[in-house]
Amino acid sequence: MHKLELVSKLKNKVFLLKAFVLVLSLFLLAFPKGGIKLFSLPLTWGYSFLGLTAILFLIRKTYTFQIDRIKVLFSLLPFQLISLLSFIKNEIDSIPFAVSFFVSFFLLPYIFFLVLSEYLDKIDVSFFLKIVKNSLFFIALFGIFLFFYKIFMGSFLEIPLLTVNMQDLGTLETSKCIDRGTVFKLISTYNNGNLYGIALLMFLPLLNVIEQKFYKRFLIKLSLILTLSRTVWVAFLFIELIYALFVKKRLKVIFAIGFFFLLMLLVSLYFEFSASWFLDTTLGSRTAGLEDLKVNWFSDKSFSSVAEMVYVSILDNFGVLGLLSFLLAMTSPIFLFLLKNPKNISNIHKSILIGLIGYLFSSLADGAIMLIPIMAFYWFLSAFIFSPALKFKE
Predict the structure, then answer these.
(1) Which single residue of 150, 227, 294, 384 could bond 193 by disulfide (Cβ 3.0 to 4.6 Å)?
(2) Structural domains counted in the chain
(3) 8 within a domain of the structure (yes/no)
(4) Nearest to residue 390, comparing CAs of 351, 348, 336?
């Protein structure tokens, strides 16, 4: 093959990979709810593009596997087996949520850890991180705008097929649990305050590393406060504290955490949230599910969904063995990475690990695990951390 022709082909591959990263980031991170519904199943542009890409990338002559990612897939097998046996034995009450479960725990891991593994190792990291920080700033800015737009205009600004699913048009106020009485939560393009906050929190430590401009970091963190979600607030403070201890190790970061804590209190006072709202032992009625909880090695309950309190719901749906296998699956990327790289890891690696740990922490109260695009982010970051394209020394 002629040298110029080879160079041209390599350039085309690089261009296609960048285009793939750009489009996928745009519709998964910036506009995750854009799309339509088919028989009550959301068909979003981001998931559709990801699925189409996976199908196209399946058709190739050679595959390059990374052993660490294959180990993660093996760690998923016990939970996959137990959940399948549960579906067969106990049946399914909700087809849409069962489809979401299958996509989250059967399709997405194999897409990121197997089909796209080779391409994740070839990503232009600087280009990708630039796309991430710009997307995060956009959704935060749009979220803040939409928050005050709703206060002053009395309605949400909706762009069908882009910021909202076509079938959800005009139903945000009544169907998304975002009403705080005197005000509505910040929802951005995610249509739900908790979902927005939980998704953004996975990327927050990474943002702290890659975004140098203070005002952008401040606005993004302000958007988290305006979600008016106790789960998001607690997880936000938890992640910032872990980040301060293990990445920055600076006293001023601790002061910043104190500042945002005071800001949360001021926001609460302004919108007249009572002390009982902070001290709600029912966690927004989530603990009601504990009353009917039966602890067995293997559940006899038919599957309807995985609720907000993820670990309790997994225990309820799949029993003790299901919960143990679920914890193995979810924590395996973290432990496998740390076992292989116990020292001298970069701040980028640390930030991704903190984002994953932060998600597992928030899942104690609300993990939004069945909602698009939470598990796409979790499995992507879990696969991305193993990429040799990430530098270990900074």
Answers:
(1) 227
(2) 1
(3) no
(4) 348
Domain that holds residue 309: 17-384
Q: Which two tokens stand for residue 125?
A: 């990291």
As a whole number of angstroms, the distance between CA 298 and CA 85 comes to 10
Q: Residue 189 in contact with residue 372, Cβ under 8 Å? A: no
Report the SS3 class of residue 36.
strand
Question: What global pTM score does this model have?
Answer: 0.91
Domain-embedded: residue 322? yes
Termini Cα distance of the chain: 38
Query: What distance in Å separates the CA atoms of residue 149 and residue 153, rounded to the nearest whole number?
Result: 6
Supply the pLDDT for residue 279: 60
Q: Which residues contact 336 (CB under 8 A, 6 or more apart)?
A: 68, 71, 72, 75
Q: How far apart are CA 288 and CA 352, in angstroms?
A: 33
Q: 136 near 220, Cβ under 8 Å? A: yes
Contact 162, 31 (CB under 8 A): yes
Length of the chain: 394
pLDDT digits (tens, 9 = 90+) for 184-239: 999 999 999 999 999 999 999 999 999 999 999 999 999 999 998 889 998 999 99
What one-letter code names the amino acid at 249?
K
In a domain, 283, yes or no: yes
Are 345 and 392 spatial neighbours (Cβ–Cβ below 8 Å)? yes
24 part of a folded domain: yes
Q: Any bridge partners for residue 36, and if so which?
A: 43
Separation between Cα atoms, residue 194 and residue 203, nearest integer Å: 15
Cis peptide before 373 (omega within 30 of 0): yes
Measured CA distances, 241 to 136, 232, 256 (Å): 21, 14, 10
